[in-house]
Amino acid sequence: MSVLNTVPFEKFHGTGNDFFVVDADDPVPDRPAFARTHCDREAGITLSESERRGADGVLFLALESRYDPPRVVMTLVQPDGSVAAMCGNGARVAAAWAAERTGTNEVMIDTPAGTRRASLDGTDVTVEMGAPSFAPRDVPLASDDELVDTEVEGLTVTAVNTGVPHAVAFVDDVDDVDLESVAPPVRHASVFPEGANVTLASPDGEGGFRQRTFERGVEGETQSCGTGAVAVVAAAKRLGRVSGDDPVTVTPPGGALSVTVPDEGAALLGGPAVYEGDGEADIVFRER
Q1: Is 245 exposed, middle or buried (0-12, 13-18, 19+ CB in 10 A)?
Q2: 226 near 210, Cβ under 8 Å?
Q3: pLDDT digit of tens for each residue in the chain (288 aa)?
Q4: Helix 226-238 × helix 88-102 angle, to 10°
Q5: Which of 25, 28, 213, 285 holds its CA 20 to 30 A away from the CA of 143?
Q6: Catalytic residue among 7, 21, 76, 87
Q7: Identical fold at 2-129+273-286 and 132-264?
Q8: Reported pTM
């Protein structure tokens, strides 16, 4: 491994889902190697302001402030070096980063999954997430039929795409499940040709849900997953566990998120985006 230079970064988190943010104007020649090196939970970057080493991904953000509202092009490179098409908490962080630089409270976010509108109220950011889809082509599935409340590798799941594919399982108590054991077989199941995030949900007793997610690309559980929170509510509506267009509280380990999945149109994801600190990171040129 050869180090050429350093690049400035900032660190943010959205309900515990943490990211290094790098301005795309600062060139990083090998983004996958950069993410694999610095996101590592044992050997990656640590900040004195942050208790956690590494991160759930690197957001490379390109600000286009000449537009009204301003636009930011978001590329999320995950700890395994892959690029995620969409990340709800990452999009909220991208909006906070762009708003800080433009002084606006509305931002358009260009992602591989499409353009999303975000609005800000202090540290709270709400982002449009697109319309969830259960269609086999959209998830995608290696099947012509939707996967709804069906057993896959010992877990009863509903498959939905909320920007990325999720296999959602409703259980009595998310804390009673050994997620690191049950999730990988589902994540790699043949019915998911591109893999799937595995999300567990259980009722919180107040009309919402508790959530845990094993993320594809991170290859482990994260403190929060925004696309997973939307997937929980979308699947809950599909199974008749909730109804209507009112916001539903979904609580992963990192904190509460507000999710609205209307009968028609884009879902909404709301919650805090918090700045943790900044620093300089080695630009990783090559891994051996």
Answers
A1: exposed
A2: no
A3: 444 589 999 999 999 999 999 999 998 999 999 999 999 999 999 987 667 899 999 999 999 988 999 999 999 999 999 999 999 999 999 999 999 999 999 999 999 999 999 999 998 999 999 999 999 999 999 999 999 999 999 999 999 999 999 999 999 999 999 999 999 999 999 999 999 999 999 999 999 999 999 999 999 999 999 999 999 999 999 999 999 999 999 999 999 999 999 999 999 999 999 999 999 999 875 544
A4: 130
A5: 213
A6: 87
A7: yes
A8: 0.92
Q: How far apart are CA 137 and CA 181, in angstroms?
A: 28
The full 3-state SS of 165-233, as one line of letters, equals EEEEEECCCHHHCCHHHHHHHHHCCCCCCCCCEEEEEEECCCCCEEEEEEECCCCEEECCCHHHHHHHH
151 marked as part of a ligand binding site: no
Assigned CATH class of 2-129+273-286:
alpha beta
Residue 197, annotated ligand binder?
Answer: yes
Instruction: Give catalytic status of residue 39 as yes or no.
Output: no
Q: Is 270 annotated as a binding residue?
A: no
Residue type, 65: S
Query: Which residue among the candidates 225, 267, 273, 281 is catalytic per the annotation?
Result: 225
Whether 211 contacts 167, CB under 8 Å: no
92 is in an annotated binding site: no
Per-domain residue ranges for the chain? 2-129+273-286, 132-264
User: H or E element: which one contains 67?
Assistant: none
Residue 71 assigned as binding residue:
no
CATH architecture of 132-264: Roll (3.10)
Cα–Cα distances in angstroms (integers) from residue 126 to residues 27, 91, 161, 168, 253, in the given order? 29, 9, 19, 23, 19
Q: Which amino acid is at 230?
A: V
How far, in Å, CA of 165 to CA of 170, rounded? Answer: 16
Question: Per the annotation, does 17 bind a ligand?
Answer: yes
